[in-house]
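Request:
You are asked to prepare a plain-text protein record giving the amino acid sequence and the backbone structure tokens, at your earliest convenience.
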Amino acid sequence: MSSMNTASKIRLNFLFVLLFVFTGTAFAQSGPGAIFKENLDLPLDAIGEEEEEHDDIESIVFFGQSYEGDGIFYCLDRSGSTRGHAIRMEKIEVLKNLKDFSEKVQFAITFYDKGLIHYPQTSRPAKASPAQKAAASAWLQSIQSGSGSCFGLGLIKCLDFANQSSAKRNVIIYLGDGCPTCPGDRGPQYSQKILSQVKTLNYKNHTISSIAVGDICPEFPKALANQNGGTYTVLSGS
């Protein structure tokens, strides 16, 4: 008799558990706007999180190439070989991007020759407010070609800007039109030196894409893009 009572109690407890489970499930799915989360490893508010994460990412076109980011950093050539048409085209392309930037974008522009000039003059990137875009556009209009070509200065400064950025996706665009040189440094040794410095400084894994004007000395821009998850593009030098 005692054994029968114990068995009955077990069956009753089992039925009670089943009733609780089915009632709880029905409750979780009932009512307008209710959410049933099948994967219990995810928080309820994770639904749609991936879409929201990319809301601020914008697409730009620079010399016919598409890039996506909300932090855009330009490393541009103003060496003696850019005198005339080349420097004008660089400025026109950046000005088009500036015009289209929303206020969510953070940006900076560097121009290298044997030295370096950049906008903004601080160590932090600019936010693309109407005032900042107007100031950057005026600064761009004043840029002229220089002499010499130390592209490493521009890349390192762009990485400094990108590392200070709070954007979700930072993109650096490098443009150059010749072989790697800098007073006191030449050829493959200079290229390897800069690639090594970039690897060390790019600890946040920013994307770096390269644009080569002409196909002279393509090894450096190719290696730069490959090392940093970017794209490599060759423009006609004419």
In short: The helical segments are 2-29, 49-53, 85-100, 130-141, 151-164, 187-201, 219-227.
